[in-house]
Amino acid sequence: MGRKKISAAIIDMNNGMPNLGIQGICDSLTAYADAASLSLSVEVFSLRELGEIPGMEYDIYISSGGPGSPYEGEGLAWENAFFQLLEDIEIFNTAGSNTGKPFPRKYMLLICHSFQMACRKFGIGTLLRRKSPVFGVFPVFITEEGDSDPLFTGLPNPFFCVDSRSWQVTNPDDQLFSNEKAIVLALEKERPQADMERCVMALRFTKEICGTQFHPEANAEGMSSYLQQEDTRNAIINEHGLKRYEEMLIHLTHPDRISLTQQLIIPNFLAEAIDHVKEKRS
Fold this sequence. Notes:
Strand content: 25-35%
Oligomer: single chain
Number of helices: 8
CATH topology: Rossmann fold
Helix content: 25-40%
Strand order of the largest sheet: 2-1-3-4-9-8-7-5-6
CATH architecture: 3-Layer(aba) Sandwich
Order of helices and strands: EHEHEHEHEEEEEHHHH
Number of domains: 1
CATH superfamily: Class I glutamine amidotransferase (GATase) domain
Number of strands: 9
Low-confidence stretches: none
């Protein structure tokens, strides 16, 4: 019997800036496909830099993090195209569900910058600039609703992630949705001394579209090498301090922290998505 054929589109939101994210996403897809004996085709689309956007012919979509404000694309063609793709995927899945029959759903994972933009699109929470940027390895707390979500299968509560953000979505009084389908899956730690709303760290926007504020694609070994480059090391210490820099390096050496998150979240997303793609391939 031949290998199942799956197509994946990766939307690069890095706007031409050097990054580890796209390679991390590609590596996760390749590793999963090899382990599951899948024939996986992957195409990368540079949206912010080149205006490239995938069509609806793909089975799986992953949209990356990136620099800058999640508002900077307002009114521009590339942002309109991104929002239209989100809408098209939601319409496609809703139409299929209304038939009452099995159908090949399309799944999408949104990371960091893409996550923040999707919160704008779906009318979720309050998106605002932080007083100071966050960068480091931090615990993420799974909500009661997230505890049974397949995205977090195999992870402890809390689990650790690479978190890098100047903007965030907050959850004031647990009343954040104009989109009733959305579910908060994870939040940052409580900080009562700071009198600040907890940042939303993961959402399921619809049954098939989910997203994380953090970077599930972050590879501990790659991150460690990157952080120890002289320019990177000096920049982080200047902005966040030596203590934060050293703490991050220590976190990266623990197999049950960043490595575990990288080994589970994207594979969990793929496993759920491919279960439905296989209905199409049967």
